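Project standup — Tuesday

K.O.: blocked on the structure for the chain from last sprint. Re-posting the sequence here as requested.
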Amino acid sequence: MKGEDYEDLLRNVLHIYNVSLKNNKGLETVKHLIKSICDLYDSIILGYLNQLKEKNMIKDIPSVPLKRLEEFEKNIPDDTIRKFIDEYKILRKCLNSEIYIKDEYRKSMKVVCKILNEEIVLTQKRLKEIVESAKEFTNIMLKHIG
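H.V.: unblocked you, prediction finished:
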């Protein structure tokens, strides 16, 4: 992938957040936003690992996203990226959990992700922070991906 491809994925995330989610606070829109952000992270991580493989710095690239993440964490290009990885892990948990929305049509909308005994609550403010983090992660990683 090229830098423009990652920027297109980021534009898609921003569009879902700024347009789709503003107009439709439905469950499917929220799920689509979370999946799009995870896809963005996955693509960037895969692109960085491909670059490392081309330089013979790693042997193989795992096919499973969480295994790729482990490999990425071993070869992380910048320590400031750790906070983004933690956020990505939370989103991955949400993606694979039972998701429902409280107060769907109000400003106090909360997305609740329930996985085993853990509940992750995402407010509109938190979703905005997650989108901003994805944007920042993309900008940092584009400097490391040739």
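K.O.: great, moving the ticket to review. Residues 3-95+125-144 form one domain. The mean pLDDT is 90.
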